[in-house]
Amino acid sequence: MISVVVPIYNEEELVVRFHAAVASALKGVVDDWEVVYVNDGSTDSSLELLKGLQASDSHVVVVELSRNWGHMGAISAGLQTARGRAVILMDGDFQDPPEVLPQLINAWREGAEVVVGVRRSRQESRKLLAFLFPLFYRCLGTLSDYPIPLNAGIFSLMDRKALDSVLAMREKNRYLPGLRAWVGYKNAIVYYDRQDRLGGEGKLSFISRIKYAMDAITSFSYKPLRLSFGLFGFSTSLALLLAACMVLPLSTVAVVGFGVAASVFFMGGLLMLTLGILGEYIGRVYDEVRNRPLSLISKVHRTQVMIPSQAGMIAMPGGYGSQTEAYAIASEEAAA
């Protein structure tokens, strides 16, 4: 089975068209598949539309979260619910094109255990984000202590073995592209052109994107902490320069005032920068110590069929990992 995990938040304009596109892309490529839609506390009619799709198509699984948990919380819930031997992760706004799905599956069939969708180009109508995205990837490539494929988001396929390795890591502030690269396994790349949203507005706020960028950097780099050593060298050099300026033929008041003011403000700024960086890391350590879940699942809508055996009920794998239940979940088509 191939599972496709799609987080959904207020996508009533696109969700029906998106499912039709995914079903069309998978038709003829794979026989056994499911699409796991994770409703991340949508306030529009997205949930009702998803339930309608699930009622009419046994390939659809709908996961209801207890509230809005954010993009990574929805992704985590979907990955835990997916039952496929390979799991594809993508956004539901057509920026990750469904027509690329067969290429990901073919690369997996050829032996790749992690297939990463890398953007060859990117269309972005929001000018600020169009400027910031390349800047972020350049910064990440410079700061990261571990090589992470750049220009790659969540759009990817992971074999069950690779996915279980990712799920076994209980980090609370996750940067999935980094974790996906960190676990290793045999990798392959599929290049694609990332389109702009087909409709509606982006759901991630600017602050959420900043936090996501901070998660990426702090999860895979110690360089910001080591910045203190660089700042020490820079501030020492500036202090020597100011000391040299004090020997210039200026009035005593001007020399003292200039030197003291510049030194105080400059050193204060460096201290605040260092404390801010340290605070980011300490805050993430605090999140790990609390060990709170990334999200809570309220309900899972899935077509279920009890399959009897001669000894009673067949024990089949549950949502993910090694959990087992006293029944098997099968689609209506398989049961027919």
Mean pLDDT: 75
Largest sheet: 8 strands, mixed
Integer count of domains: 3
Helical content class: 40-55%
Beta-strand portion reads 15-25%
Outline the structure in words.
With 336 residues, this protein is of the alpha/beta class. The chain has three domains: 2-220, Spore Coat Polysaccharide Biosynthesis Protein SpsA, Chain A (Alpha-Beta Complex); 224-290; 303-335, no CATH class. 46% of the residues lie in helices and 18% in strands. The protein has helices at residues 15-26, 46-56, 71-81, 101-109, 127-143, 160-168, 176-182, 206-219, 223-245, 252-290, 332-335; strands at residues 2-8, 33-39, 60-65, 86-89, 114-122, 152-159, 187-194, 297-301, 308-309, 312-313, 316-317, 324-325. The strands form three sheets. An eight-stranded mixed beta sheet has the order 7-5-6-4-1-2-3-8, with helices on both faces. Strand 11 and strand 12 form a beta hairpin. It starts with a strand and ends with a helix.
What's the quick description here?
The protein is α/β, with parallel strands linked by helices and 336 residues long.
